[in-house]
Amino acid sequence: EVQLVESGxxxxxxxxxxxxSCVPAGFxxxxxAIGWFRQAPGKEREGVSCISSSSHGATYYADSVVGRxxxxxxxxxxxxxxxxxxxxxxxxAVYSCGTxxxxxxxxxxxxxxxxxxxxxxxxx
Length: 124
Prior knowledge:
The protein is mainly beta. The chain has no helices and eleven strands.
């Protein structure tokens, strides 16, 4: 059974930074793509960023976070990180990580297994 566990959410002022972590159980980070998604109140879940399996070595970002968010992985810790800088109030959402197989996808319907999510609140 594949499980993912997120951590690192919290409250931060606009312009601040937060780093989220995603640890999968049941597979190792380099083997599959892992994406970060978010869902703000009253809005649909959307793709934020993704790092593909090591054999493809690609990263992707939603236009709204380019230049502010950075996704990375540490195979020694079997962890994928989402470093979020220059946060804005509109980044407030529940952030979840999920695996989409070997390839990245920004479509939440392509996620095969989800984590439980972590809340990020950005105050103005």
